[in-house]
Amino acid sequence: MKDIRLDVFLSMNEPGLSRSRIQSLIKEGNVKVNENLSKPSQRLKCGDRVDISVPPPSAVNLVPQDVNFSVIYEDRSLIVVSKPAGVVVHPAPGHSEGTLVHGLLKHCKDLSGIGGELRPGIVHRLDKDTSGLLVAAKNDRAHLSLARQFKSGEVKKEYAAIVHGRMKTNVGEVNLPIGRHPVNRKKMTVVSKGGRQSITR
Hints:
This protein is of the alpha+beta class. 19% of the residues lie in helices and 19% in strands. It folds into 3 domains: 49 residues, RNA-binding S4 domain (Structural Genomics Hypothetical 15.5 Kd Protein In mrcA-pckA Intergenic Region, Chain A), CATH 3.10.290; 83 residues, Pseudouridine synthase, CATH 3.30.2350; 41 residues, no CATH class. It has 4 helices and 12 strands, in the order βααββββββαβαββββ. A 3-stranded antiparallel sheet has the order 3-2-5. The chain has a 3-stranded antiparallel sheet with strand order 6-7-8. The protein has a two-stranded antiparallel sheet with strand order 1-4.
């Protein structure tokens, strides 16, 4: 195994946890390498022992609310909803109410706790201005299974986009790194340095 960052290693091996959640766990002292506290950027070497402890979600006052979405499919393990544009998926700075999570809590009795206290049931996300189908997990087993399927590429996602200009072909691939917009930190954009890999076919 080549040297690899600790947060990258964990995101590859813990599909139920987002990269940002993993980084928070490391910074909070819930991850140790060879019994020592670590940093997200720490490089692992062959033979290193990594221990991770995911604390149970703490109680957060997420009050169920009426939120505009349609249920497309639902069973005991998961729910598929159609998220309209303008609805934020989970609470974040500037969006403490009226998120899809608030609506899911009103609709469902149980949601998976793996996503953390502010993202119960959330396996993947859609941007605020994007409409489309979103899958949420009702239990931890479903969450882990769905996260694994999204990470491995078993789940195929299709997008319809409005494009300015003329496309040379009807099929193509965008393979460029994305990161926070330098001016509007709430938006993502293509970046030249420090972005994460993003492939859209």
